[in-house]
Amino acid sequence: MLKERCRILFLPADRQVEVDPGITVIRAARQAGLHINASCGGTGVCGKCRILVEQGDVDGGLSEKFSADDIKKGVRQACTSIIHGDVTVRLQETGGLKTGQLGIAVPERHRAAMHTYDIADLKREGIFFPPVEKFYLELPKPDHHDRQADAGRLLRSLGAQYGEHHIFITLSVLRRLRRVFREDDFRVTATLARPVNEKYRSRLMHVQPGNWTARNYGLAVDIGTTTIYGQIIDKQTGEILVESGDYNRQLSYGEDVISRMICAEKPNGLTRMHDLVAESINRVIDRLLRKQRVDRDEITSVTLAGNTVMTHLMLKLEPHNIRRSPYVPVSTLFPPVRATDIGLNLGDKCMALFYPSVSSYLGGDIVAGVMGSGMYRTDKVTLFIDIGTNAEIVIGNREWLAGAACSAGPAFEGGGIAHGMRAADGAIEDFSLDPITLEPMSITIGDKPALGICGSGLLVIIATLFECGVLDQRGRFIQGLDTDRIRQGRSGFEFVLVWSDESGLDRDIVLTEVDIDNFIRAKGAIYAGVETLLNEVGLRVTDLEQVILAGAFGSYIDLDSAMSVGLLPEIEPEKFLYVGNGSLMGCRMNELSNHIRKDVVKTMRRITGFELSEVPSYKDHYVASIFLPHTDSSLFPRAAERRLGRQRIREAGMDQVEKIKK
């Protein structure tokens, strides 16, 4: 049986780190801020990551490149050695230098702490009331002393047992009452949909014979431009029972929303765009239902959130003027509708709820993130960032909110990069560099042969190259360094991350200066957006009390790297929180709390939207941000200290190398 946590001690650096069992030694070293040469992506191909296991034991790590004597001594490959218990590992010496000592000046890595806002919070705050709820009733049977009609009997019992009054009954439900009541001796389950406005009555959606309260499920759906994500939620426990995702089939008409709006303007284009996104959601729903063995009729409500364009296309609202100045959507508020009326393959009594948008460029997905993260209820001055192709930024607290969006481009999702790819097996996700030899350590997702670079890997690679003095502030490779990894390529200079014989491709995997330029422009747009929004509300970076990161990229973001390149403002790492898919989180919370649903419109109206292109200072902030990390290095003092530390290590190491040569 595996231990809960394992302690691994690295020598000669004398650095210890606790890791989960099943992790490889090379990943543990990276967590400890230590470098091990391994350019093949951690797949066991290059054989450069030799370590000596001095105490404890590891699984695997053997190589045909090692002699029998080496193996007997405990020599292993770090990339394929799996930790299952406490172990002491000695890192090999390279070029007469103790490699482990090179890592002493490297700080331990910082990531945002995972932030959840769940059913326990809702119950503690007294706001756990799902928008659609089931109530079990044992109704008194009619007799000569009680001749009340079936409908009145039901309403009287709902009021007496649960305090539910002011209920509207539809004709379709009335037609079923007589039979349903007598099918299980007046034991029934009533399904009620609560209104947002208390002036209106709850709606009796369904009545079933017997007790079905334990089978009340909701759906949360994030309608992404690229990907659709969904979750089934148990409305009694608040538990996420199953989740799944699939590509948005609108991708065949373009990766960006502009292409899809253009398509929607063509004859039958709007219907086509709607059908594709509905089909994509239905594919996710089918997969979820199969996995959990839930019947369609047991899904009583579904909450959906997407950017303003995606919401318009899902509801078959013409998005034509969203892309034309002055950028006006059809609506920012959307009424509850039957799920079947918008093409969703669910029961005819399932209600669909949509998060409202703020404007054409601040959509329901961001409102959902603000709601789901609890940002709208906190007293802390908070910065909320959802990083993707379009980066949305919200600043504020429970008293006020301001938001803006900026186009970051596809670099953070692997787009526009020579060897860029989405976060999948074979993507380089982590990276470090020996400051003396400039030999890299690359780690891939799934420990597969390297195929390319994902967004989080791109961030760490560029930050590391900059900190180690391989890149200058403009993102250009410094010439004259003693390494064959910097070379002239087809589009300028490039750095070889993985040689062809160590990769999963038939060619070298490289990072080019064009790639770096695309990244710098993307990170510059985001940082300039943050600075501009802060200036517009009269705040500075030092006024921020917490930063909430959302989106797939945020889950893997290395905070030190993000600050080193000037992507995120330099504040204390403990102030950063990560919420994962903020849009999906907001949909889930809406399925569990009608109170949040009531707060949505009020919160949405509190968000003051800024069009950055119309704010004169944004261009100036952007120009200042398209350097590493910024033209004003005083904004990133800790990043400057890290670079200086790396430089001193390199200088000291080079001196030692010269002495050894002599």
Polypeptide structure, described:
There is one protein chain. Helix content is 31%, strand content 24%. Strand 13 and strand 14 (202-209) form a beta hairpin. The longest helix has 25 residues, at 637-661. It has 18 helices and 32 strands. The strands form eight sheets. It has a seven-stranded mixed beta sheet, sandwiched between helices. Strands 17-16-15-18-20-19 form a six-stranded mixed beta sheet, with helices on both faces. With 662 residues, it is of the alpha/beta class. The two termini are 53 Å apart.
Topology of helices and strands:
Layout: E1 6-11, E2 15-19, H1 25-31, E3 50-55, E4 58-60, H2 68-73, E5 75-77, E6 81-83, E7 87-91, E8 93-94, E9 97-98, H3 99-102, E10 113-114, H4 119-124, E11 132-138, H5 150-162, E12 167-169, H6 171-183, E13 187-193, E14 202-209, E15 217-223, E16 227-234, E17 240-247, H7 257-264, H8 269-292, E18 299-306, H9 308-314, E19 337-338, E20 351-354, H10 364-372, E21 382-386, E22 390-396, E23 401-407, E24 427-433, E25 440-444, E26 452-453, H11 455-467, E27 486-489, E28 492-498, E29 509-512, H12 513-536, E30 546-550, H13 552-556, H14 559-564, E31 576-580, H15 582-592, H16 594-606, E32 607-610, H17 616-625, H18 637-661
Parallel strand pairs: 1-7, 10-31, 12-14, 15-18, 18-20, 21-30, 23-32, 24-26, 30-31
Antiparallel strand pairs: 1-2, 3-5, 3-7, 4-6, 8-9, 11-13, 13-14, 15-16, 16-17, 19-20, 21-22, 22-23, 24-25, 27-28, 28-29
Helix pairs in contact: 7-8, 10-15, 12-17, 15-16
